[in-house]
Amino acid sequence: MSTPHILVVDDHREIRQAVGEIVARDGYRVSTAGNGGEMRRVLKSESVDLIVLDLMLPGEDGLTLCRELRSGSRWVPVIILTAKGDEIDRVVGLETGADDYVAKPFSGRELLARIRAVLRRSQTPADRGTPPETYRFGKWALDTARRELELDNDVLVPLSSGEYNLLLAFVKHAQRVLTRDQLLDLGKGRTAVPLDRSIDLQVSRLRRKIGDDARNPQVTKTVRGGGYIFTLPVSTQ
Q: Under DSSP, is residue 167 helix (H, G, I), strand (E, B) or coil?
């Protein structure tokens, strides 16, 4: 397996270099960028496995760049760096499609743990030695070989790694109540902190992606005091 390539995007040279050194010491290949333009140049010329993206960039900020990445055809996992402690910044970051966040100041150990966790979640089933399958439910098909969600009219719907793993957990355990803790284990792993609202946010985003009415969801129903249940029957091929 090739060495994962991490792109660090931060306008502060000292932070950019420090994060790059932490990541490189752990054996990853590292590139750095100081702004959105430099980020695009790296992405255009090289294959990148994960982006560590500062939230408070001048000009095009991290949220704008994250939205741009999620609207494109090329999917790359994103971890947002934020200097703010307010939960709203983390919520907004996750709403834009980021896979995780790290609040400054952070330890190198914490950053590396989150990078490893996101890279694990972004691996395809083939990478993990699991035969790829296609899960069909309603008008949808989730292709685990290509990590693609497709409507029956051949329309592809982009998913973040968090959304993909959450949907995969739902279809593998369809018509069963899954608690938030179970969804954290199945979809995110235990890097999530106890107050992390990312499961609820990702369910909300997933509902929008599959056209499930947020006010009266019929596919991903909320179970009071329990968690969520994926109601559609699922077949595999």
A: helix
